[in-house]
Each structure stands twice: as structure tokens, then as C-alpha cells.
Amino acid sequence: MSRSLVTRVVPLALVLLLPLSGCSDDETELHVQAAASLTGTFQALEKEFEADHEGVDVKLSFGSSTTLAEQANDGAPGDILATADQQSMDLAVDGGSVAGEPAEFATNALVLVVPADNPGRITGFDDFADTDWVRCDDDVPCGRLAVSLLDANGVTANPVSRELDVKAVLAKVTSGEADAGFVYATDAVAAGDEVKVFDVPGAQDQLNPYFIAALKQAGDDDLAQDWLDLVNSDKGRTILTDAGFGQP
């Protein structure tokens, strides 16, 4: 091969290799499955976590605690499970998908919210029952808590709909599709001026405990533990408290 040919071939080989090296992807994903009521707080924690873990992309999935626990038991990809009650976490534990001992990390109270313009002219818990009101479905944590508190207060009226999770209840209220709805205190805080808030008698005596645990299908046990540590750190507790969560 002539010297001039070698000169031409070597630069071409280098050019072909450069795009290949630029396409390598060393990013690690951490999949966190969490109750819908944790949306705002876990999004804030996601930013903190990614800032402290270069090359890690946190993937958040929110929904009904019961559904997420069932999906974990079915082997759905996930590193962390956070539920809005103990019953849902127990479901995951009994299904064999949880690694280690789940830890309680927060509590939440149920409140009654109405749209800011209050079309039902509701003045408190005593006069919501004759309006178009909504709550969570019986099989999810916010629904189970609502049923318990309604029973304790002797309310026999039925809602116009039962929603899959607390975010759906809040959406019905803020959109004006419902005159009132039962949501967590944290959801009322997140809604801000879009809603008016009324206390539910006995709510402080029936708080929903929130539990968190690593899953056996976790791709990186150390990374999963880092997320657990962040949630339980002073920074994590501050984020939770500012959102309206109570301490465990």
C-alpha cells in the first residue's frame, strides 16, 4: 500500500469511530412506583436525587397504591414502592415482591374540598351530602379512609362517582364536575386557590400511614437504598412537611 493511500484511509477510520463512541449510554434508571398523592413531593425528590447522582435518571410512576402493589407482585419493573396505606404495602409483602422491611415515612389526613366558586354553597362537612360529591373507590387507600370516616360520622349518602385515585377526585372538583370531594390534605395544599377546604370530623384520629420499601426486582440495590435514605433524610422530611404530610 502506498504512503498516500495510508494517509487517506486512517483519518476515514477515525471519523467512522467517533460517532460510535459518542452514542454510548451509561445512564442508569431508577424506577419508583408511588401513590398518586405523592406526585408533587416525589417529583421534588427526583430533582434532588438526580443532582446528587450523576448519570442516574429517576423514572416515576404514580397511581393507586393497590394497583401498584399488584403490578409489583406480577413482576413489573421497579426498584421502589411507596404506598398510601399499610394494607397496600402488606399486599406487596405477602406477594413476595418486597425486599427488606417496609418503613413508615409519612402520614396524611382526609379533608373535604369544594371548587373555589363553591357552586354547591357548601359551608362545611354538615351540608355536603345533598350535593354532587365524589370520593375514591372502595379498593384504594383514600377510598377506604373516606368510607371509614363517613361511617363514623353517620353519613349514608352515596357519591356521584368513585374515582381510581385521589388525583382523579381532585380533578373532578377543580374542573367543576363535582360540588365536593374527599382528598388528602396534601392534595388540597397542592391545589392552592383552586379549592376551599373543610375539615372532616375525626380525620386526625384516622390518618393514613405511608410506607416505602425496595423491591426484589430492583436493578441496583445500593441505588434503591439511596432513594430510601433521601426520603427519610432531613431534606426529604422537609419536602414532605412543606407539602402537608405529617410525620410517621
Describe the protein:
It is a single chain. This protein has 248 residues and is of the alpha/beta class. The protein folds into 2 domains: 115 residues, 3-Layer(aba) Sandwich (D-Maltodextrin-Binding Protein, domain 2); 96 residues, Periplasmic binding protein-like II (D-Maltodextrin-Binding Protein, domain 2, 3-Layer(aba) Sandwich), CATH 3.40.190.10. The protein is 40% helix and 25% strand. It has 9 helices and 10 strands. A 5-stranded mixed beta sheet has the order 2-1-3-10-4, with helices on both faces. A 5-stranded mixed beta sheet has the order 7-6-8-5-9. The longest helix is centred in the first third of the chain and has 20 residues. It is elongated and about 55 Å long. The N terminus is likely disordered.
What Rg is obtained from the alpha carbons, in whole angstroms? 24 Å
Question: What is the average of the pLDDT values?
Answer: 90
| Share in β-strands | 25-35%
Form type: elongated
Unreliable spans are: 1-24
The SSE string, one letter per element, is HEHEHEHEEEHEHEHEEHH
Throw out a few tags for this protein.
248 residues; D-Maltodextrin-Binding Protein, domain 2; five-stranded mixed beta sheet; elongated; 10 strands
